């Protein structure tokens, strides 16, 4: 993403959601993967795909600890009402 290549980020992040227990899911949660995919799709100009992932984040962190509040609020604000 920092290199300005969101399509490459999508290609890397998508398989992580389907990874097995021994895969990267031990180090990152599904919610964090959805958050990253939301950002990547938004940057790639694919708002419908971004919305799918931001909705997941909004629901997952709706009652989360305060440490996740800003990230939840970002996803929620991004979604159309």
Please render the helix and strand layout as text.
Blueprint: H1 6-17, H2 30-43, H3 47-60, H4 69-78
Quick synopsis:
The protein is mainly alpha-helical and 81 residues long. Helices cover 62% and strands 0% of the residues.
What features would you describe in this structure?
The chain has helices at 6-17, 30-43, 47-60, 69-78. With 81 residues, the chain is mainly alpha-helical. The protein has one domain. The longest helix has 14 residues, at 30-43. It is globular, with a radius of gyration of 13 Å. It starts with 5 loop residues before the first helix and ends with a helix.
Q: Could you tell me the number of beta strands?
A: 0
Mean pLDDT across residues:
88
Beta-strand portion reads under 5%
The SSE string, one letter per element, is HHHH
Portion of residues in helices?
A: 55-70%
Q: What is the rounded distance between the termini? A: 27 Å
Number of domains: 1
Radius of gyration: 13 Å
What structural class do helix, strand and pairing data support?
Answer: mainly alpha
Low-confidence stretches: none
What sort of overall outline do the alpha carbons produce when their principal axes are compared?
A: globular
Helical stretch count? 4
The biggest sheet, with number of strands, parallel, antiparallel or mixed sense and barrel status, is:
none
């Amino acid at each position: 993403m920092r290199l300005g290549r969101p399509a490459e980020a999508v290609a890397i992040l998508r398989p992580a959601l389907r990874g097995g227990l021994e895969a990267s899911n031990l180090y990152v949660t599904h919610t964090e993967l959805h958050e990253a995919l939301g950002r990547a799709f938004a940057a790639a100009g694919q708002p419908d795909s971004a919305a799918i992932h931001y909705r997941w984040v909004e629901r997952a962190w709706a009652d989360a600890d305060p440490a996740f509040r800003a990230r939840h609020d970002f996803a929620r604000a991004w979604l159309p009402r």
